[in-house]
Amino acid sequence: MTRRVTVLGATGSIGDSTMDLIGRADEGVFQIVALTANTNAQKLADLAIQFNAEFVALADPDHADDLRARLSGTSVEIGIGPEALVEAASLPCDFTMAAIIGAAGLEPTLAAVDQGNHVGLANKECLVCAGDLFMNRVAKAGATLLPVDSEHNAIFQVLEKDAPKGVKRLILTASGGPFREASPGKLQTVTRKDALAHPTWDMGAKISIDSATLMNKGLELIEAAYLFDRSSEGIDVIVHPQSIIHSMVEYVDGSVLSQMGSPDMRTPIAYALGWPDRMAAPVARLDFAKITGLTFFEPDTERFPALRLAREALESGGQGPCVLNAANEIAVEAFLKETIKFMDIPKVVEAVINEFSAASGFSVSPTTLDDVLTLDKAARQAAIGRLKAL
Ligand code: NAD
Ligand code: MG
Which of the ligands is closest to the CA of residue 88? Predict the structure, then answer.
């Protein structure tokens, strides 16, 4: 039976890998319902034509005319603006790939969840800024959430879901990023180019910077807590530079199960796209005789304070994770524009967290979408204020 698929964030790095797999599948396996993008009208139009999409949504109205011109004479329907992303996500389909970056993906991803079908979740910021709300919506709609983030996909693959008491802890692996061995002095002077050069994974710009600060692992810690209903103490992080073991689950009897593979996102994406079956992915195969070593280190939260900040935000609960995420998005954007230094990123995040926690003690948890959006906006404004004060 043909699987009807929507890809939110089709023009990004996860979008590329998803469209690559769909393009390789046999005729009739997948039909594209909707594709979305932020600004890249050309790529969105090309994909829509190549994959015979029914609907496309572009978030940024400034590129609407370009998109319309490129799709004139085709039968592809066009939607413009953030509401069109929600419209795209609401069109009935069997599987949605949620691969928009950042909190901008929250509303469309919730609309996809509300369909009650399969959702491949790449967008971790959704869970960080609105974890309780998001998981409640998943339960209410009866949706099947298939984690695409490689660590969470690994855990999903090896977690004995019917015997949760047997699980001792989840162990998230981290590559350590491009600055794993950098001295504190060196971290003060690293550039945007250095930070974008990830040693093992090829990803979009924002997540590459998050990987360099280790905020990515912090966001993933919070993501894992919500996805697998674990507290902070039940989730450890270990640096594993080769990115071959994608994460592990330790059981009470001492067994540790891991999922391994080449660092290529097409493996977890194929897992989600094909679930519950396995589909082929054209990734490099592990050649165990050629692997010279698998090494592991404790993460250094002195040099990489973002991981500590994320764990503290998870433990404080309430508004903490949403504020952390919003401040981080603003700080990373500023670093990518080269207006702040690398180590200013955790500095800005920590200052905003302290500001909000002093004001509210993080006691109030955002429970509605409006609460989340209001808090996200306020934290972004506070972060912009901190950038100016640097
Ligand atoms: P990317 O920057 O390459 O692509 C992001 C996509 O979102 C693009 O299609 C872009 O058009 C769209 N987008 C950006 N801003 C938007 C906005 N304001 N409104 C609507 N659409 C917008 O990002 P990516 O690396 O593909 O990452 C996507 C998500 O997947 C992130 O949440 C990331 O953390 C997660 N993820 C990515 C990887 C990876 O290998 N790239 C691995 C694990 C998890
Ligand atoms: Mg990951």
Answer: 1
Closest CA to 316 of 364, 262, 252: 364
Q: How far is the CA of 73 from the centre of ligand 2 (A)?
A: 40
Ligand 1 binding pocket includes 207 (Cβ within 6 Å): yes
pLDDT tens column, 114-137 = 999 999 999 999 999 999 999 999
Q: Is the CB of 176 under 6 A from ligand 1?
A: no
Which domains, ranges and CATH numbers included, belong to the chain?
A: 3-147 (3.40.50.720), 150-263+278-302 (no CATH), 317-390 (1.10.1740.10)
Q: Is 99 in the pocket of ligand 1 (CB under 6 A)?
A: yes
pTM: 0.98
Q: Identify the nearest ligand to the CA of 14 by its number.
A: 1
Please check whether residue 328 is in contact with residue 357, taking contact to mean a CB–CB distance below 8 angstroms. no
Q: Which residues of 100-125 are buried (b: 16+ CB within 10 A; e: fewer)?
A: bbbbbbbbbbbbbbbbebbbbbbbbb
